[in-house]
């Protein structure tokens, strides 16, 4: 799930690979907690824990009850949950976030970040997206949002105590000043923002002032982090949050993308969470080198248990890594109807529809091998790689046949069909970077097939991965690989996700 130690003493970045954008972090004692955006998926807002900033394990999803997260059927993909901020104050965890297209800005609290989290407190006077929370010495709570503007908030009632006022907004004319985080560090208040848009021009900038409302003096070295106009393998770097380790050293967590293939490059894993060290010079943060191989930090690393490669579906509760599209209804999806199997009942919608019955996990590695044992005697369903309703590939079984489909924008095509013997079948997909050929080579190849009784994998169709990339599909998410039911009832005995890569 997370960054790993390598034999040469380096650690692997991203520390949380796959579609985990807009990281926000806080530390309480020796424990770090981190949350990410989750858009149209339910449960929402994955919560991670670490003791060393490198090895992270998912301890839950903050929004795991329908009373906390409603994602209406007509809400498009890549709307929903944007850019949470996680803070610890007065013995409580505070999570402020925007539900774009539904509840707007809302606030949740918890005493344990693993949950349960409260129901949402509406914040009707907080405009826009990317809300941040900071408390000053007299207990005033400042809420800063994209744009960049700032207001005083009563975090208990949700009421504004002042009107939003424009504050420092980055380089004049720069696109999309957003992702603000306000901190008291030493003698100054610092306002950290992202600008340039979340694509290749993305960057991180900072300003400081004597009070939480400024006036703010921009750092002369702004942007303090960007990979724009470079060939760096990590692109789109921005949307950062600062954290201090117990030994006094500092780090940034941020989002970045890893485009692959020829030009213009396609990223398929979404925007991922990276870690980079920060030092301070003359009261300004200086960001270290952000690399895929990171020098191990100076403090001890404490590996956490990795998520097993096989999910057996023998527990009543699914591991928090499993996500569904917009909602997960217990009567349509569960492990108790047929013991040891995940049972999905189609609700009428295929993967092209917003109410698809789907349970998946993020693709986190450029190369991976996925298999699932499917029993589709009473329905039709299978294994899908999903970007959104208009961009997905799948291998689908029914009682007698298996088919590979590609949905790319308005086009849907059957790529292959083969008859099946009676009984459950292992469906699979192998994903690997595409061998470079010319400037037009896509990022990767996805080979869908069935496993024969002797264990060999027969590929029925190999598809270019560019059509399941953010550059083609648009939006803010990344690939999710999972199981679905398109009609009737489909059972899944197990699901394997294997990779030989650290990231
Ligand atoms: C988020 C904004 C951004 O609200 O993308 O990269 C938006 N930053 O801050 C969606 O993740």
* Average predicted confidence as pLDDT: 95
The helix tally amounts to: 1
Note the gap between the termini: 9 Å
Tell me the name of the CATH class of the largest domain.
Mainly Beta
Bound molecules: (Z)-L-Arabinonhydroximo-1,4-lactone
The CATH topology of the largest domain is given as Tachylectin-2, Chain A
Envelope shape:
globular
CATH architecture call of the largest domain = 5 Propeller
Q: Low-confidence parts lasting 5 or more residues at pLDDT below 50?
A: none
Characterize this entry briefly.
With 503 residues, this protein is mainly beta.
Summarize the structure in words.
The chain is mainly beta. The protein has 2 domains: 286 residues, Tachylectin-2, Chain A (5 Propeller), CATH 2.115.10.20; 189 residues, Jelly Rolls (Sandwich), CATH 2.60.120.200. It contains 1 helix and 37 strands. The strands form 8 sheets. Strands 25, 27, 28, 29, 30, 31, 32, 33, 34, 35, 36 and 37 form a 12-stranded antiparallel sheet that branches. Strands 15, 16, 17, 18 and 19 form a 5-stranded antiparallel sheet that branches. A 4-stranded antiparallel sheet has the order 2-3-5-6, with no helix packed on it. The longest helix has 4 residues.
Features:
binds (Z)-L-Arabinonhydroximo-1,4-lactone; mainly beta; Tachylectin-2, Chain A; 12-stranded antiparallel β-sheet; 37 strands; Jelly Rolls; 5-stranded antiparallel β-sheet; 2 domains; 48% strand; single chain; 503 residues
List the helices and strands and how they pair.
Layout: E1 10-12, E2 24-28, E3 31-35, E4 41-42, E5 44-50, E6 57-63, E7 80-89, E8 92-100, E9 104-110, E10 121-122, E11 132-135, E12 141-145, E13 149-153, E14 165-166, E15 178-185, E16 188-195, E17 203-209, E18 217-218, E19 225-226, E20 235-244, E21 250-257, E22 272-281, E23 284-287, E24 293-295, E25 310-311, E26 324-325, E27 333-334, E28 342-345, E29 357-362, E30 368-388, E31 391-397, E32 401-408, E33 411-419, E34 425-433, E35 444-451, E36 457-464, H1 470-473, E37 480-498
Antiparallel strand pairs: 1-24, 2-3, 3-5, 4-26, 5-6, 7-8, 8-9, 9-10, 11-12, 12-13, 13-14, 15-16, 16-17, 17-18, 17-19, 20-21, 21-22, 22-23, 25-37, 27-28, 28-37, 29-37, 30-31, 30-34, 30-37, 31-32, 32-33, 34-35, 35-36
Bound molecules: (Z)-L-Arabinonhydroximo-1,4-lactone.
